[in-house]
Amino acid sequence: MDNIDRRLLAILRTDGRASVSKLAELLKISRGTVQNRIDRLTADGVIAGFTVRIAAVEDPHAVRAVMLIEITGQKTVSVIKTLRGIPEIRALHTTNGAWDLVAEIQTENLGEFDRVLRHIRALDGVSKSETSLLLTTI
Questions:
Q1: pLDDT of 116
Q2: Contact yes or no for 126/70 (Cβ under 8 A)
Q3: Crossing angle of the two packed helices 3-14 and 20-27, in degrees rounded to 10
Q4: Which of left, alpha, beta for 51 (phi over 0: left; psi -120 to 50: alpha)?
Q5: DSSP H or E stretch at residue 103
Q6: pTM score, two decimals?
């Protein structure tokens, strides 16, 4: 990935519905180049999909949490690739210290939250996790 790819991803994080024309204008490159880059990033698994993000104030009943994840062996790349494909994971961070990854999770309800946690914990390479619910944003 180069600087244009990183800028493209940053714009898409902010506005995943931005048209190819708008992206080309913002990046000062051709529409064809933008489309080729999106296609390549998708094929390479960098872009795992497109989804709608609902602001917390728009969905006051959403369940939000931070999950700390420990990965065993040489499974980091495959675990990250799988986690990027889980739409309920809003952000994924590498970190130092006792934990390898921090996942920000948001679901519509506790049943969905439980399903996501079970799925993540069952991944090959995930050895341990700790999850904290986010109660109030201040």
A1: 96
A2: yes
A3: 130
A4: beta
A5: strand 101-107
A6: 0.61
